[in-house]
Amino acid sequence: xxxxxxxxxxxxxxxxxxxxxxxxxxxxxxxxxxxEGLEKYIRSDKDALKILTSFLGISEERFKRIVSMIRRMxxxxxxxxxxxxxxxxxxxxxxxxxxxxxxxxLEGKNNSDYYNNIPNYILDQI
Length: 126
Prior knowledge:
Blueprint: H1 8-29, H2 35-44, H3 48-56, H4 60-73, H5 84-93, H6 95-107, H7 112-117, H8 120-123
Helix pairs in contact: 5-6
């Protein structure tokens, strides 16, 4: 008895798709080491935040929790966490959120607001 169905041809096909996706993502991510590059990437790719959180090894739930913390710190009304799609839309339409979340992704460990409010083991991933 096996706990998993094993199909080597399917696994090889998925491995090739994954390698192609990683290659494409790496090409896109090479220019995001600046604020302008990161902002351009977020604006141009509807899946940018999903890709970034995956690439950084941060769960979407943890990322949403951090964004919720940012919202509360700014005194925003808070009743529920935003989805990744809503966060991206808010970033695109509100320069304050674009600035704060780009700062988190680029300089989170060096920003005292984030350093004092987010555990180091989480900031180490960003």
